[in-house]
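Extended Data, panel c. Modelled sequence:
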Amino acid sequence: MDPSETTVKEFLFRMGFSNVVYEPDGNLPPDFLISGEIAVEVRRLNQNHYDGSKMRGLETVAIPLWQKMKRLIESIAGTDGNSWFVFFEFRRPEPPWKSIKPEICKSLLEFKNSTDKRNGIIYSTQNFQVDVIEASRPHETFFLLGGMIDNQSGGCVVPELISNIQYCVSEKLSKIGPYRNKYKTWWLVLTNYTGFSLDEDDREQLQQHLQLPVGWDRILLINPSDLREWVEF
């Protein structure tokens, strides 16, 4: 299960669904099945560009940083029965990993050992920030890497989101085509890693300019850094 799928599973539990099955048909669509009836596909919403042969997410340059954070978080073993998602965001030029790794590790350990745990920022320095959000249920580890935001990404909020949502929706619709008739209801859940934080006006504009395409019964855009923030269109 990749990070977006892990986030969406958590989101579905928070929505009140308990019978959520991952990859019910194996390595084929859908990604999740709710109560044996609702097929759910997951797609990471990122900024894309055409490199001459294919679409690529602009944030792919941040993969090494993601991997380093993942290894650091996984090195902190043990759990007290609760679990917390770790999110980080950065802006280029990001500080050298060697300089911030000990500080991030210290902040994570201090949080784990604290008696007063709350959602919020636990580490912040120039161009780098780490947040924690409590999971709705216990996992095997105390910390789980929940997501990353690259604040260097550019573009105007609504036009950029509309363009990338339309691309992701079309791409996923093509993927589920051969399996569409197996389930009556299909949802698409997009995890917003574009770096944009939506306010009420942004959400209203998205809902005005984006119509539900034929082939999907519901499309949700969620904020992986705060699962309480989501919009449907």
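The mean pLDDT is 85. This feature is highlighted in the accompanying rendering.
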